[in-house]
Design brief:
The complex is a heterodimer of chains A (742) and B (331).
Chain A lengths: L13 H6 L14 E7 L5 E7 L1 H5 L3 E5 L34 E2 L5 E7 L2 H8 L3 E6 L6 H4 L8 E2 L4 E2 L1 E4 L2 H7 L2 E9 L11 E7 L2 E6 L4 H12 L6 E4 L15 H13 L3 E4 L15 E9 L5 E12 L11 H6 L5 E9 L13 H19 L3 H7 L17 H12 L9 E3 L2 E13 L7 E8 L4 E4 L9 H13 L6 E4 L16 H26 L13 E4 L2 E4 L2 E7 H7 L4 E8 L11 E13 L5 E11 L6 H20 L5 E2 L4 E2 L17 E6 L23 H13 L5 E2 L3 H4 L1
Parallel strand pairs in A: 1-14, 10-32, 12-13, 16-17, 21-22, 28-31
Antiparallel strand pairs in A: 1-5, 2-4, 2-6, 3-5, 7-8, 9-17, 10-15, 11-12, 11-14, 15-16, 18-19, 19-27, 20-21, 20-26, 23-24, 24-25, 27-28, 29-30
Helix pairs in contact in A: 6-7, 9-10, 9-16, 12-13, 15-16
Chain B lengths: L4 E4 L3 H9 L4 E4 L5 H6 L7 E4 L8 E3 L5 E4 L4 H6 L1 H6 L1 H8 L4 H6 L2 H5 L6 H4 L41 H7 L3 E6 L2 E6 H4 L18 E7 L8 E6 L10 E10 L2 E10 L6 E2 L1 H7 L6 H12 L10 H17 L7
Parallel strand pairs in B: 1-3, 2-3
Antiparallel strand pairs in B: 4-5, 5-8, 6-7, 6-8, 9-10, 10-11, 11-12
Helix pairs in contact in B: 5-9, 11-12, 12-13
Chain lengths: 742, 331
């Protein structure tokens, strides 16, 4: 029975968000609040030789100016680790304003605190710096001849080099071979809410209102950096206005807000400006991919080599993990994946939505589209011939798959059979079709995830966990999970989150949130239900007294005998009789330890119908179809919204988004929403999201594989393939712009 | 915080007197980009004279059949005006393809003409920029300049004039009417926008304190067959890569009337007079249009990043004119 889970209920946070009632981290009113504004380095490499804070200190309303000359030293620098681990997870192994060295443009060099935001903003521009500037290295063309393959990257979790079989020999022997190189522009996350933290200290305890994907990650990271006991830090984060990875790591401003609040002895609000969002919370790095495919005449892959080149920071070996899904997506005996990194004057890139898969699948799937052309095969047929029935890397069975059904349903919806007839002319437009596979790891946390569920004597209930609501709809979905386990109407159940005083969780990153939080909430709710049933059958006053608990079920908001549904009572009746105001249970879901029995991944397929103006080179996506098999869907409305959003993100990646580096200054040249183009409604085509049902008994208790990123994985490749189908032009750079098609 | 004085004017003469007498003051109308530039330190005005209460919002027919648009009419009001839509479709289109609905509700016609360039080096308040800080150099010449101008450029400045409306008005020989302390003036639109030359800081011939009161568009019967074609990466809320304002009259397969102006490619709204001259009297077909377009763009001085605009502008001119050519027009 799945009465509540999966229902397309409207978001419970919809009204507060649309009416302005929702309070974000920069909306928290506190007595004596002060305002902090950061100043960024005008140079990208070198050192500060002189600071003159006097003009800023003399400005009206200024309370303090902090620079490397007077900001206290951090207690310790934790290493860069993904926040899914649940511990400290700084964005880079570097903390600003500890010395005079400048590692990247926009690096925080001063923090000004004033009595109003406007005064702080103005004074931040008055702090004078003298620099000794060195040549900045910021783009791939400058690092080409000084790259290295790191032993590992991504916090040590991904090898710099991985292989199976002898890829060079297999490429040499291949009956058909395709080699292609792709360039992808750097991208920035650009959530609507810029990152913000409001900090205050009370009786030695630090309170942080923080825009984060994981309140506990903020707690642990700030605790480590400041040397404050974790127990003395409470992080609250009730609403987060989007993140897309910008708030997945815990960046410097959260800790700086706490340091500033301690310095001035008053609450401090620190909100980044839009421009600062380009140099304060990571990005998707500029990258170059070289893919070589070998195949036999029947289209069976015999070799897959995928090399990536990208710039990383001075202090971390980091590239988004572009190669891992490609290594697992197709049956192919010979594989090599290599990351080459070059040091540049950039911050550590870290995360942006679909981090790695969106770029790696563009390169791999575009090359497959080309291979299909070389072979004279339908691109979809090529994928089917190379379907990986088991994981090619571990040779383990998949926990669930559904990819062939995604291909079938997507192809049917878009009318893929039309492709064989060639592109269609529609006035000035040439219209083509393209497709690509989608894949995203169904990773999980490594530590126990916790939740608490409480039923009150009036029959209402709360589920609690320290989750972050950053736009995913977690509050609505988890109320559904708890309601279903308790057998209560969903209107009677509320999900409370966003507070480290609640049962703790890892950060909701990498599409893991729905799976791991639902696991904990489900466990706690089931435990509470069982506890109350046990209490009822032991209670002489209960109509269920003496019944076998195994024969008691839930119906109409009541505990009833399964075979005599008119016999039973509600939780409220049971609790009131016992003079009990409430009952609650806390449970953990501990992910399985040791060697996994299965390979776990989410699969899907993208289909795009794209029109290209034959003279003007304009590209207009007319239709996107995505079919996905994300396991159990907790709320069909919010899940489809996330998948649709991901697909539109993929369209933005394909056609619009690029962070442009001015390599002379080492600064991003377009750090605004006017100049960094994300799709607007006028760009949005018809988007069809198809959910393919698969049951997954392995990944987590409810079989949830997540929908946060799979929507973007492969979209750009499908669009590029459609552009090729329409025009015969193979564009190998993202975004695809007018000048590529003139 | 840098203090800014603010006062509200209730009469044109009062406003003109106030700003003319104070070098550090300026007018505030819609404020849609002005406030950004004040915050970013690009503008350093000490006093703002709010002119939104002045009676300059009318959209009227003039005695000789032209159209007079008050300087404080909002972009959205002008775009929605039935007479404008009927007689001057390219004006309505240029407005509706500008900015966003929210901005169009705020922004005034006078302010639209005076909007500042979108060059990132101008707007960042810090990079070398001869327009913002005369003599400091031009960071765009060898910097990020895909969106910059290919016509009317100088070695001091290559910023594109950003207004869509101004391109349509340039095609229509509009006049900009102003008030000064000594009386009223009228500027032909061709003279109103200045190429950067050696003085990119000077964008128009207005004296300090001279206030735009209206824009007058002469009666232009051919404008009923007109179009504003705007090409851009994103389909809304973006400035033009290339735009074309065109009116066309075709009789017996020959071009007997044509107006052509370009946006997105030049340092000022670019009247394509050379192309017009070649088109007039010629056959109304794509080949003729292409020859004229090529001639107009021959003077282009592109950078490697914006060289595509030279080709794109030619194709856009052909597209705009072709779409205005009656079916079988060249027959």
């Amino acid at each position: 029975m799945s009465a509540v889970i999966g229902q397309p209920l409207p978001r419970i946070d919809g009204r507060p968000k649309t009416t302005g009632a929702a309070r974000y981290s920069a909306d928290i009113p506190l007595p004596g609040l002060t305002y902090a504004v950061l100043a960024g380095s005008r140079i990208a490499a070198g050192r500060i030789t002189r600071v003159n804070a006097a003009p800023a200190l003399a400005a009206t309303g200024v309370i303090a100016v902090l620079t490397h000359e007077n900001l206290p030293r951090i207690a310790a620098q934790p290493p860069v680790l993904p926040s899914l681990l649940g511990g400290p997870s700084p964005g880079e192994t570097f903390f600003p304003m500890q010395d005079a060295t400048i590692h990247y443009g926009g690096q925080h060099v001063a923090l000004v605190v004033a009595d109003t935001y406007e005064r702080a903003l103005h004074a931040a521009g008055l702090v004078e710096f003298t620099y000794e500037e060195e040549p900045a290295v910021t783009v791939i063309d400058q690092i080409r001849d000084r790259t290295e393959v790191p032993d590992s990257l991504f916090g040590g979790f991904v090898p710099g080099h991985s292989s199976r079989g002898d890829v060079e020999a297999a490429l040499d022997r291949a009956e058909v071979r395709v080699d292609a190189t792709y360039h992808l522009a750097a991208n920035h996350q650009n959530p609507l809410e810029t990152s913000a933290t409001t900090a205050h200290w009370e009786g030695g305890r630090l309170f942080l209102h923080d825009a984060t994907q994981g309140p506990n990650a903020t707690q642990h990271t700030v605790a480590a950096l400041l040397g404050v006991p974790h127990a003395d830090i409470r992080v609250i984060s009730h609403y987060v206005g989007g993140s897309f990875g910008a708030k997945a790591s815990i960046w410097h401003h959260s800790t700086l807000a706490a340091m500033a609040a301690r310095h001035v002895g008053r609450p401090v609000r620190l909100a980044l400006t839009r421009e600062q969002m380009f140099t304060s919370c990571g990005h998707r790095e500029e990258q170059e991919h070289s893919v070589s495919l070998g195949a036999d005449r029947q289209g069976r892959l015999t070799a897959l080599r995928h090399h990536k080149l990208s710039p990383t920071s001075q202090h971390d070996d980091w590239a988004e993990t572009s190669l891992e899904v490609g290594a697992q997506l197709y049956a192919c005996d010979a594989y090599e994946g290599v990351y080459r990194l070059g040091r540049a004057h950039t911050m550590t890139p870290t995360f942006m939505r679909c981090p790695g898969e969106a770029s790696g699948l563009f390169a791999l799937e575009s090359t497959l589209d080309q291979l299909a052309g070389e072979l004279g095969l339908d691109p979809l047929e090529l994928r089917l011939r190379n379907h990986a029935d088991t994981d090619p890397v571990t040779e383990k069975p998949w926990s669930s798959k559904g990819l062939k059904e995604c291909y079938r349903r997507g192809a049917e919806l878009i009318g893929w059979h039309r492709r064989a007839a060639g592109p269609v002319a529609d006035g000035d437009w040439l219209v083509g079709l393209g497709m690509a596979s989608a894949a995203y790891p169904a990773a999980g946390p490594v530590n126990p995830q916790r939740a608490r569920v409480r039923v009150y004597a009036d029959g209402s209930a709360v589920a609690q966990a320290a989750a972050s609501e950053f736009g995913t709809g977690v509050g609505t979905a988890m109320a559904q999970v708890a309601a279903e386990a308790l057998g209560l109407p969903v209107e009677r159940v509320r999900f409370e989150a966003g507070d480290t005083d609640l049962p703790n969780l890892a950060s909701a990153v990498g599409s893991t949130g729905a799976g791991m939080i639902s696991a904990a909430v489900h466990r706690a709710a089931v435990a509470l239900r069982d506890q109350l049933i046990a209490q009822a059958v032991a209670d002489p006053g209960s109509p269920l007294h003496g019944a076998d608990p195994g024969r008691v079920g839930l119906s109409g908001g009541r505990m009833v005998l399964r075979d005599r549904r008119d016999t039973g009572e509600s939780y409220a009746e049971l609790l009131l009789r016992a003079h009990q105001p409430d009952a609650e249970a806390t449970r953990s879901w501990a992910p399985p330890q040791g060697e996994p029995t299965h390979a776990m991944m989410t699969f899907g397929a993208h289909f795009a119908e794209v029109a290209v103006d034959r003279d003007l080179g304009l590209v207009r996506v007319r239709r996107l179809v995505g079919a996905f098999a994300p396991g159990r869907v907790l709320n069909a409305r919010t899940a489809k919204s996330q998948l649709m959003g991901g697909m539109l993100w993929g369209m933005g990646q394909a056609l619009l988004e690029q962070s442009v580096m001015d390599r002379r200054a080492g600064r991003w040249a377009n750090p605004s929403l006017g100049d960094y183009l994300v799709p607007v409604n006028a760009d949005a085509p018809q988007v069809d999201v198809e959910l393919v049902e698969v049951t997954d008994d392995v990944v987590n208790p409810l079989g949830v594989k997540g929908v946060g990123e799979i929507g973007q994985a492969g979209t750009a490749a499908a669009i590029a393939a459609a552009v090729h189908h329409a025009t015969g032009r193979r564009v190998r750079n993202l975004p695809i712009v007018v000048e590529d098609l003139l | 915080m840098r203090p800014i004085g603010y006062a509200r004017a209730t009469a044109v003469s009062q406003a003109v007197k106030a700003v003319s007498g104070d070098r550090d003051s300026t007018y505030l109308a819609g404020g849609t980009t002005q406030v950004d530039l004040l915050r970013q330190g690009v503008f350093g005005h000490a006093t703002l004279i709010d002119i939104n209460a002045l009676p300059l919002t009318g959209i009227d027919r003039t005695d000789d059949g032209g159209t007079r648009i008050g300087a404080l009419a909002r972009m959205s009001d002008v775009a929605a005006d039935p007479a404008v839509r009927d007689h001057l479709p390219l004006v309505a289109e240029s407005l509706e393809l500008s900015a966003s609905a929210q901005l169009r509700h705020m922004a005034s016609i006078g302010g639209n003409l005076l909007q500042r360039v979108r060059c990132g080096y101008y707007r960042d308040g810090a990079s070398p920029c001869n327009k913002r800080a005369p003599g400091s150099g031009c960071a765009a010449l060898t910097g990020v300049n895909r969106n910059h101008a290919v016509l009317g450029v100088s070695d001091r400045c290559i910023a594109v004039h950003p207004s869509d409306l101004a391109v349509a008005l340039t095609a229509l020989d509009a006049r900009v009417l102003t008030a000064t302390t000594t009386g009223e003036r009228a500027h032909h639109i061709d003279d109103f926008f200045l190429e950067p030359g050696d003085t990119p800081e000077r964008e128009h011939p207005l004296e300090h304190g001279e206030l735009i009161t209206a824009v007058e568009i002469p009666d232009t019967p051919t404008a009923r067959n007109s179009r504003y074609l705007k090409l851009r990466d994103r389909q809304s809320y973006e400035f033009a890569l290339v735009s074309v304002a065109a009116t066309l009259r075709v009789e017996h397969g020959l071009v007997t009337g044509v107006r052509l102006a370009l946006g997105g490619v030049a340092t000022k709204p670019w009247r394509a007079r050379q192309a017009e001259g070649m088109l007039l009297g010629g056959t109304a077909d794509a080949q003729t249009y292409a020859v004229a377009a090529r001639a107009e763009m021959a003077a282009a001085r592109p950078t490697p990043a914006n060289a595509f605009k030279v080709e794109l502008a030619q194709r856009a001119i052909v597209r705009a004119l072709t779409s205005l050519t009656p079916a079988g027009g060249a027959a």
